[in-house]
From TrEMBL:
Residues 11-175 form the N-acetyltransferase domain. This is GNAT family N-acetyltransferase. It comes from the Bacteria. One of its GO terms (molecular function) is acyltransferase activity, transferring groups other than amino-acyl groups. It comes from Streptomyces halstedii.
Amino acid sequence: MPSAPQFRSLCPVRPARPADEPALAELDRATWSTLHSVQPRPRPPYPPFFDDRHRPEEFLLAEADTDDGGRRLAGYIRLACPTPLAATAHVRQIQGLAVAEWARGQGLARTLLRAARTEARRQGAARLTLRVLGHNAPARALYASEGFAVEGVLPGEIFLDGRYVDDVLMGRSLTP
């Protein structure tokens, strides 16, 4: 694993491109944790990061200019329609958020959330929702500070590491 770069500045959030797939897949594997993932730890051979259900246009990403003059992926957020139904076309759902360990503590998750909110509005959405594991207190606090409210709790919905965990549904309006 490459050493953590020192970074000078974060670049503006941008849409993902197909060429970003290897870096996104690497970041996704590096940030895997039962704090936020309901999937088993990734093991080789790794499936493609992008597929029919996870398209590049659903991802916003943040990069950092590093001290060595390079640029490195620092984080991503996935913004997608929650269902294929016309009845939910006014809703966008955050379906993934990851920040590289070396980029944490710089407000990047908040920046990605705000970019997702802006993009959801640009797409005509009136609501933004997400699901978060009940034991992920840092994420829940961040979402609450960005205007998300708990709209439902599915008690014990998820079984992880030998225990039942709540699935917390949060949402916010995007209309003034």
